[in-house]
Design brief:
The complex is a heterodimer of chains A (298) and B (221). Chain A has a four-stranded antiparallel beta sheet with strand order 2-3-1-4. Chain A is built from ten helices and four strands; from the N terminus they run ααβαβααβαβαααα. With 298 residues, chain A is an alpha+beta fold. The radius of gyration of chain B is 17 Å and the shape is globular. In chain B, strand 4 and strand 5 form a beta hairpin. Chain B has a domain of 66 residues. The chains are: A alpha+beta (298), B alpha/beta (221). The interface between A and B is medium-sized, with 22 and 28 residues.
Amino acid sequence: MLEKLKFFLSATGNNLWQFRTRNLFSVAIICLSFLTVGIFLSLANNLRATARELAANMTIAFYLDKDLSAAGADTLRREIGRPGFAESVRVVSPEEALERFRASFPELADVVAGLQANPFPPAIEMRVNAKASASKEVAAFVEAARARPGVTDVLFNRDWVEKMQGFSRLAGAVGAFLGGILILTSFFIISNVVKLNVFARKNEIEILRFVGGTNLFIRIPFWLEGVTLGLLGSLLSLALLFIVINLFPVYLGSSLGALQQLLRFRYPGLSQAAALLLGGAATGFVGSATSVSKFLKV
Amino acid sequence: MIELHHIWKQYQKPYWALSDVTLRIEDGDFCFITGPSGSGKTTLLKTIFREIVPTEGQILVNGVNILKIRDSRIYTLRRTMGIVFQDFRLMFHRTVFENVAVPLQVVGVGRKEIRRRVFNTLQKVNLHQKIWEMPGRLSYGEQQRVAIARAVVNNPEFILADEPTGNLDPELAFEIVTLFKEINRQGATVIIGSHDRELIRHFGDNILFLQKGKIVGKEAH
């Protein structure tokens, strides 16, 4: 068994070295394909994380009628706090709201000082469970609350969360589309490179057949060759992705202004990195297996 | 034992490369198949190791009809045979050792055993001192001896050689056939396709004469 393994590795090594130019070319194409996938994956990661952060901090403000009694406000608070997705509910008095405004917009202090009366209505603030923030249940609850007596308006900033989630899906889809095309290209390139290697090794394949080599024995080095090319390409793409992630903010980040937050790259997770590597190996294997089964008649 | 019963082979109509060939080669035979170019020597040898499937007929190797073996199981037949070609068919990017070791690696022989058997075989063909050379650096005679070493390293029952001396000068050709004779003495059945009359006259125990795909004569000494 060990001797067979040695033979496979040596045959694979020989193939890779002897045809190094075309092999390097296919590694470069695989690398480019997986780098494209990786970049969009990293962007989608960032957008998804931003959406998660927004969702985690999401509150719904129910503005109340100024004339509502304290008991009425308390009844509403209890009702609003009843659904399972409500993490916390508190009443914000007009005074507290004014204080917050002052703290948030110190440059408008003069305007606030000139006010005759406190313009802020009392409100009930509900913190929503991050997992439920995008659910229809919350949207229906908000709509129903608008119609409640004592509630004058409801502010629910779910749009941003939805936008972030939408961007994230879009980035993922663009990555999958572009990456898919490029991976398909890689597949054909590996398939053709292995085909050329099969033709170049015709003599050796014939010798192996004459000395009693099984189909599997003859094919394994070519499969290994495809897998190695795929793995090398995807490994290189991961290395380049880390360089891009580190260098992007230094060279381009500041010129993006407000978009910097959205177009920030995040490192792929361990499972994503493993998926990229496995994807490379799988592309290499399928590419070479297709070629070998088609052109290697043993 | 190899038996061919009424073998016909046609590559292209209306020519028959083999016409109704029937023969029997006993275990331990040293047999020459001879005839002019295009007489069917190579086709005949190729049908025996099932590189070519005859149009009609039956071939039995040790009683097994090899035409009924599935393509994916042909290796079982080939492992009983050592095949030598006129053009040596060596792997030129591998050392002499690696070339000779291939039939053993194919069947999964252990590392130490491979070293021992390759060295012993190369010693028999007097090439043990060139074990780590690349074949391209050897003379034609030496290259053919490497091919012979590869053919015999796993002690096959049958050695099939197609014009093994075709590229060699008479002296080297003599040396190579002597080597085959020695292998035959050790128990292998040897079948050589050749048109070298001088060699056949000197070494031929059993001679089959082919002409236009037909056996036109047999000689046994």
